[in-house]
Write a sequence for this structure.
């Protein structure tokens, strides 16, 4: 957690001096950077779409109960530039592990930062935590 | 004949130095000055190429965005974006008090009201500051065209022309340009009031006037200075100094934002259900 926290803080620091957004729009409104999550499951659906890519993951717990999660990530334009290939890199039926941050509404949804494949290879799937929400400091002085 | 043009011609004659930016309509580019700035046949700095805003690192897209960066290929998932990818030097925006309150409100709502969430063009300069997407500059002696991958938006900037008067207000405004020495100066007016300038909530009115100055300082970098004036919401001109970095080998992609924009519905759900999302 401390690693995540320091990362989020550094992100906030650099955003202090920035105007640009990293992401399409506010991941921060939809997902909570203070709720990291790691999930391992079987891919059941892949949406290779803009403005964001999505995939579904069936996660089975140690009691045999399966829960379907929906993961959100980069625009496909960024995925291509990050090393992904449509219908090749990740397919329905693949077992993957994701690291990301949960949705604020408590649903089984998360913003996936990274996907780890069965062979151990890792690729970023979405932007860092808290992106697109304006950083830690507004563009104007706070009265 | 000025020395720069002479140098360009000599370099061309020696068969040296074709830059390797993607092919464009301007194939006459031959000369590269000692500072690495190529010039077109008419002696102007050559701005042709694919560029990335919001990221001051040199190199190819992969090099500049590797590790922690945007679309990076690094290994630490919890790491933040690379600081270099966030390079914009600016002071707090000089909004009038009542306007600043509106900016702050949007910030406190984490930008849930971002026009990008509706797949709308972000305006000038913000659209090119989203470092996730490249832009392409196509330069001719009579006009400069900027192609934005993000939102698939274009800007046609005629040189030494008057602003047009036969169109209504626009997200990206109406642009005309001219050269001041080695700097391309672009004057942008006729905006609507639906875009943001640079940063969450930085709204403007339809009185916005933007002046951009593009100066290619070496092979890899264009210094981009943007001055925004809006007497309805700003107390004085707001100037942002940033860069566009050359991304050789990168080609623009199609981007259709409306394809599957489910986030808008997600935001409505958050608002309807009272999910605590504010700062």
């Amino acid at each position: 957690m401390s690693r995540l926290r320091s990362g989020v803080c550094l992100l906030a620091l650099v955003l202090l001096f920035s105007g640009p957004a990293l992401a399409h729009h506010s991941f921060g409104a939809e997902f909570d950077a203070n709720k990291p999550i790691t999930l391992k499951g079987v891919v059941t659906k892949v949406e290779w779409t803009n403005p964001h890519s999505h995939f579904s993951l069936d996660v089975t717990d140690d009691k045999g109960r399966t829960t379907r999660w929906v993961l959100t990530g980069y625009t496909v334009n960024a995925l291509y530039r990050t090393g992904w290939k449509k219908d090749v890199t990740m397919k329905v039926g693949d077992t993957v592990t994701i690291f990301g941050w949960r949705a604020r509404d408590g649903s089984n949804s998360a913003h996936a930062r990274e996907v780890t494949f069965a062979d151990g290879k890792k690729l970023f799937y979405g932007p860092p935590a808290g992106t697109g929400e304006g950083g830690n400091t507004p563009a104007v002085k706070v009265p | 004949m000025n020395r720069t043009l002479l140098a360009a011609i000599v370099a061309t004659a020696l068969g040296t130095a074709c830059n390797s930016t993607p092919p464009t309509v301007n194939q006459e580019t031959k000369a590269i000055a000692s500072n690495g700035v190529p010039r077109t046949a008419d002696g102007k700095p050559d701005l042709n190429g694919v560029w990335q805003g919001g990221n001051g690192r040199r190199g190819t897209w992969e090099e500049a965005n590797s590790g922690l960066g945007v679309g990076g290929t690094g290994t630490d998932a919890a790491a933040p974006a690379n600081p270099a990818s966030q390079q914009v030097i600016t002071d707090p925006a000089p909004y009038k008090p009542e306007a600043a309150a509106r900016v702050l409100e949007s910030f406190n709502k984490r930008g849930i009201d971002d026009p990008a969430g509706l797949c709308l063009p972000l305006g000038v300069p913000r659209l090119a500051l989203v470092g996730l997407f490249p832009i392409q500059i196509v330069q001719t002696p009579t006009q400069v065209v900027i192609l934005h991958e993000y939102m698939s938006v274009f800007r046609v900037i005629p040189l030494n022309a008057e602003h047009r008067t036969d169109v209504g207000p626009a997200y990206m405004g109406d642009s005309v340009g001219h050269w001041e020495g080695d700097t391309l100066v672009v004057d942008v007016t006729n905006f609507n009031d639906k875009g943001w300038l640079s940063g969450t909530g930085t709204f403007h009115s339809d009185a916005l006037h933007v002046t951009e100055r593009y100066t290619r300082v070496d092979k890899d970098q264009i210094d981009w200075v943007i001055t925004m004036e809006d007497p309805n919401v700003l107390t004085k001109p707001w100037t942002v100094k940033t860069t566009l970095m050359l991304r050789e080998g990168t080609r623009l992609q199609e981007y259709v934002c409306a394809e599957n924009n489910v986030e808008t519905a997600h935001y409505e759900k958050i608002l309807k259900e009272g999910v605590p999302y504010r700062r």
Q: What stands out?
A: The longest helix of chain B spans residues 97-108. Residues 138 and 243 of chain B are 17 Å apart (CA to CA). Helices of chain B lie at 3-13, 61-64, 97-108, 126-129, 263-273. Chain B has two domains: 3-46, 53-259.
